[in-house]
Design a protein that fits this description.
The structure holds 2 protein chains of 2 kinds. By secondary structure, chain A is mainly alpha-helical. Chain A has one domain. Chain A is 69% helix and 3% strand. The N and C termini of chain A lie far apart (113 Å). Chain B has 2 domains: 180 residues, Penicillin-binding protein 2a (Domain 2), CATH 3.90.1310.10; 365 residues, 3-Layer(aba) Sandwich (Beta-lactamase), CATH 3.40.710.10. Chain B is 37% helix and 21% strand. Chain B is elongated and about 155 Å long. The interface between A and B is large, with 36 and 43 residues. Strand 1 of chain A pairs parallel with strand 21 of chain B.
Chain lengths: 121, 628
């Protein structure tokens, strides 16, 4: 058996008209009885607030990451600079020159080293 | 009643306020819908209003090249280009209403720029302070925003430049623009430059050096470079930050390359060779290679060419050790001697052959006049193989080749191939040339004299590295190993891929024959053409060779009788227990007879210097003594 339709198309225009009148009179929310969803609405606001706050925090953190990257890059540059200086200074000729500057008469070996064995070992 | 009216009035005010808010909300909502769906901004303002996402390529750190002990041979090094926006604050000063004050501010800025230029001239050599000041003033007038101030300065200088007047006010007020870039630096300067090679886009190197064979840097570029990464950046209140909604690809840093080069030996080899050749005006190139006998690891590789662009000094321009193919001359006699010994045609070095006045029988080869001297001096018509080798007689080795292989020349050529002297092998540097060996079946190149002349090192062409590999095999008692330059590929100190020794031929001769060869080679350095090596700190076995290059117009000498000398010494040390093999070759422009260009001259003397150094410094040669 076909169920009888309980509403008419003209009801839609009635609802819209009532809704518009309610908006104009400023009592739409009261008519909709939104009061009972107040907690949900407040909770939704809280969630949105957290979302925005987190987003700002993330932005802040990303900014810090970029600044950290710049610092790290700077440190890498310093490291490369120092490594190059160390490599230059550790050149055999540089060491000999430095020794001569300091008054040493040490020269390149003229014969293979002799290893002195201790106690027959 | 009055109270009620009052309430109505308040209600009315609130109602009107409510309606006003409602209208505003509707307007805002309508505007949002309009902006989202209908309105299209003009492209001019759309750009600045739209938060841009830019793609940035993350450059990986290029790997280092290390010597066998881990010392840096090549590394990436940051340098800075300093530029200047000459127009900073120009508009700001122009907008000052008081013309006197505006002029004063402008002249103060220019005064500071002069002080900056003055300071810069002390920090960056070659900077003309007055010229730079004029450029800045002109640039300010013309609106130049990118004036070059200094190029390729190191970090210390860059920091000092930032402290100069005007620049210490920062980019917005002082106009300083600092642009970092990486270049390749070589702590050992130009030593082994041809072996280490270069990076093609290295703006830190002079242009003339970025050509030719790119060396290890070029051959292993993909491994050294690593993999580029990419990220997308967006503008935020905190500056540019990574856009995490877009893809991010991490850069993978390049691997390090540990070479077999020992930089101490390399420096000593470079010094020894330069000391010998620097004063020789008619020499145009030389090379020196030191290789470890057991492994084939190349410990030093020096390649020097005269560089007209540097006042004719010797520089590492071409890799002669692998890229120069020439008739090796007498060092090839060892090939003939090894062949006849291995094939059993002679049993002992003391066997003799008739001198025949220096004429090789059954050929049209030119008479060897040195044999006539031998006959006169020793009053004999016989010469032993050892003496022939010692004095490097072309007649003796031409005869040995013709006498034993004339009927089977292919057998001799196959021997040459079996010694690795006819083929190429995969080497760690690009550009190793393939030797040229005549084919007996090709009658166009094979004549009546070819076999005989091959016997003493003509009619063939070899690279120094091929000859060294052959002598290294004799030192290794017949085991021929492949020369190599890359020990391992490393990442953060861990070995990713270990290269190393590979054997080309497990036995090119028996141990007994190798020992006989060593005795023959020792006779050359003790009593023969390389007597200069008698004074070496350890016994060196080896052979000298002198050949002549083809001069312009063809032939081995020009109209004035000048010849292009190609002198070589190749051998190994210590002869009793060989650890290193070494080759030194020098190449001259056309010149008159000069003993120093022959194998027993500069090449032998250079090898002595290097061998002395290695013998005294390599821990494997140390001696043990009991404590008494």
């Amino acid at each position: 058996m076909e169920e009888k339709r309980k509403w008419k198309v003209s009801d839609i225009s009635e609802i819209l008209r009532n809704g518009f009148n309610a908006i104009i009179h400023g009592n739409l929310l009261l008519r909709l009885n939104v009061g009972k969803y107040f907690m949900h609405i407040a909770y939704t606001f809280l969630l949105f607030w957290i979302l925005i706050f987190e987003s700002l925090m993330a932005e802040n953190a990303l900014g810090k990451v970029e600044r950290g990257k710049e610092k790290l890059h700077e440190m890498e540059i310093v490291l490369a600079d120092k490594t190059f200086e160390a490599a230059m200074s550790s050149r055999r000729s540089a060491v000999i020159d430095k020794l001569h500057e300091l008054g040493s008469r040490l020269e390149e070996p003229q014969a293979p080293a002799t290893v002195i064995k201790k106690n027959g070992r | 009643m009055e109270d009620r009216n009052k309430k109505d009035r308040i209600g009315l005010v609130l109602y009107v306020f409510y309606l006003a808010m409602l209208v505003m909300a509707v307007c805002v909502a309508g505007k949002i819908v309009y902006f989202q769906l209908i309105w299209h901004p003009e492209p001019k303002i759309a750009g600045p209003l739209t938060p841009s996402v830019v793609k940035r390529t993350i450059e990986p750190v290029r790997g280092n090249i290390l010597d066998c002990n881990g010392r840096l041979l090549a590394m990436s090094y940051p340098v800075y280009d300093i530029r200047m926006d000459c127009t900073v604050r120009k508009n700001e000063f122009a907008l000052i209403k008081d013309p006197e004050k505006s002029r004063m501010k402008e002249s103060e800025w220019l005064r500071k720029s002069e002080l900056m230029a003055e300071g810069l001239s002390h920090l960056v050599p070659g900077t003309d302070a007055a010229k730079l000041s004029r450029q800045i003033a002109a640039g300010r007038k013309d609106g130049r925003k990118y004036l070059q101030i200094a190029k390729g300065v190191d970090r210390k200088t860059m920091l000092a430049i930032k402290e100069l007047p005007l620049f210490n006010e920062g980019a917005n007020r002082g106009g300083i623009i600092v642009e970092p870039r990486n270049i390749r630096k070589y702590p050992y300067g130009r030593i082994a430059r041809r072996t280490i090679g270069f990076v093609r886009d290295n703006k830190g190197l002079p242009e003339e050096e970025i050509k030719g064979n790119p060396g290890l840097e070029g051959r292993y570029d993909a491994l050294l470079h690593g993999t580029d990464g990419r990220e997308y950046l967006r503008v935020s209140d905190r500056g540019r930050v990574r856009n995490y909604d877009s893809a991010y690809v991490r850069a993978i840093d390049g691997n390090d390359l540990r070479t077999t080069i020992n930089i101490d030996f390399q420096s000593a080899a470079d010094k020894a060779l330069r000391a010998q050749i620097d004063s020789e005006k008619t020499l145009n190139a030389a090379c020196l290679v030191l290789m470890e006998v057991k492994t084939g690891a190349i410990r030093a590789m020096v390649n020097l060419s005269r560089d007209p662009s540097r006042g004719g000094s010797f520089e590492e321009i071409s890799n002669h050790a692998i890229g120069r193919r020439y008739e090796p001359g007498s060092i090839f006699k060892t090939v003939t001697l090894l062949s006849v010994l291995s094939d059993g045609y002679i049993k002992s070095l003391d066997e003799t052959i008739p001198t025949n006045h220096g004429v090789v029988k059954d050929t049209k080869m030119r008479q060897d006049v040195h044999i006539l001297d031998w006959e006169r001096e020793h009053k004999t018509h016989e010469i032993s193989i050892r003496d022939g080798f010692k004095i490097s007689s072309n007649y003796v080795f031409g005869t040995l080749a013709v006498q034993n292989y004339a009927k089977r020349p292919k057998q001799y050529v196959e021997k040459v191939y079996s010694y690795g002297l006819g083929d190429n092998f995969d080497f760690d540097l690009e550009g190793l040339l393939t030797p040229s060996i005549p084919n007996p079946a090709n009658k166009e190149v094979w004549s009546n004299t070819t076999l005989g002349t091959m016997g003493f090192g003509y009619a063939t062409e070899e690279t120094p590295l091929h000859m060294l590999t052959f002598y290294n095999a004799i030192a290794g008692k017949g085991r021929m190993v492949k020369p190599y330059l890359v020990e391992s590929i490393e990442k953060n100190g861990n070995v990713v891929d270990r290269r190393g020794t590979s054997v080309l031929n497990a036995s090119i001769c028996t141990r007994a024959v190798a020992d006989t060869m060593t005795r023959a080679l020792l006779s050359v350095t003790e009593e023969g053409t390389a007597k200069v090596l008698r004074k070496a700190r350890c016994k060196i076995a080896g052979k000298t060779g002198t050949s002549f290059g083809i001069v312009a117009g063809g032939g081995y000498s020009d109209v004035s009788g000048r010849k292009k000398y190609q002198g070589t010494f190749v051998g190994y040390f210590p002869a009793e227990d060989p650890q290193y093999s070494v080759i030194c070759a020098v190449f001259s422009d056309p010149s008159y007879t000069n003993y120093r260009f022959q194998g027993g001259g500069i090449p032998a003397a250079t090898v002595k210097e290097l061998a002395d150094y290695v013998y005294a410094n390599d821990p494997r040669f140390r001696k043990e003594a009991d404590k008494k």
